[in-house]
Amino acid sequence: MEIHYAGGNTAEMVVYNMDLHPLLDKELTKPTKWMKLTELSWHFLAGSIYHQANGRPFSNDLIIFLVQQQAYFTPNFPIFLEKIKSNRDSNHEYSIKLIHTMEKIKTSSAVYSTKLLDQHSDVVLATFVSYMVMVDLSTRKSSPFPPAVKNYIEEHSASKSLLDEIPQQTKPMKAFPSDAQIYRWSRKVVAFDTNASHTSHTFYLGFCLECLGCALKDGIPVDLDKPIHEAIVEKYNIIIEKESCLGQMSTISMYQSQDKYFNFIISVEDKNIAYLCMNFFRNLK
């Protein structure tokens, strides 16, 4: 893995094929793996930008918390997956590049964009737009960015934004129709789901996929043209309103709408904390 940053509000990270080998086959099709790579770009690349602007790194008392993320995997993505799985002995030919940009910044929130490319051809594989909030770990409340960071990002913001390039995303449902056929499933938050005692960002996405898998095992009729372990997510949009903690019982409600989107509402103690919608590539050979 290589990190390239030369100032400004954009940086690059290269992940080589050898780094992806442990994720081959079923793991690469899971969007949680690619969400984790965007998290790495937040830590490494956004951290570099923050340091450049402020003259010192993030305090250990601060964390960047995801409140919404929109992801779009292009038609090139499943093609790339097939290439990398069929060329296991190649260490560098199918490496990927993440271009991370701090697009906008307000008092305690920022918009990050991440573009995932095939490094060899520069073909775009996916785009992610993440809406983040700086949080003080001791109080669990939002914390303002230093003025130097805010000024630096505003000075280096480009006129053309990735936000203008990505397709318009379907918004997650915050309530289902009264006549909707809803599948519900629950489990406790375990240590594997957490990061510093609260759930990691990938928990919410992975929890929804677990729920879909359980619905299929329970014989619930869903419109999916492949087995769940072969299906590849094309788009997802997630909103996280409140974090879930270790040991809490989380319940998920799932509804597939007529447009074939899977819609999920995650709740804890009867209070909704997150909303997600996703759809899958169809008719892939």
Keywords:
12-stranded antiparallel β-sheet, 5 helices, 14 strands, single chain, 285 residues, 35% strand, alpha+beta, two-stranded antiparallel sheet
Describe the model.
This protein has helices at 17-20, 31-54, 76-86, 147-156, 201-217; strands at 2-4, 10-15, 62-73, 96-105, 109-118, 124-136, 141-142, 183-188, 194-195, 198-199, 233-240, 249-256, 262-268, 271-280. It starts with a strand and ends in a 5-residue tail after the last strand. Helices cover 23% and strands 35% of the residues. The chain has five helices and 14 strands. The longest helix has 24 residues, at 31-54. The strands form two sheets. Strands 1, 2, 3, 4, 5, 6, 7, 8, 11, 12, 13 and 14 form a twelve-stranded antiparallel β-sheet that branches. α2 packs across α4 (147-156). The model has no long low-confidence stretch (mean pLDDT 85). The chain is globular, with a radius of gyration of 19 Å. It has 285 residues and is α+β, with helices and mostly antiparallel strands.
In short:
With 285 residues, the chain is α+β, with helices and mostly antiparallel strands.
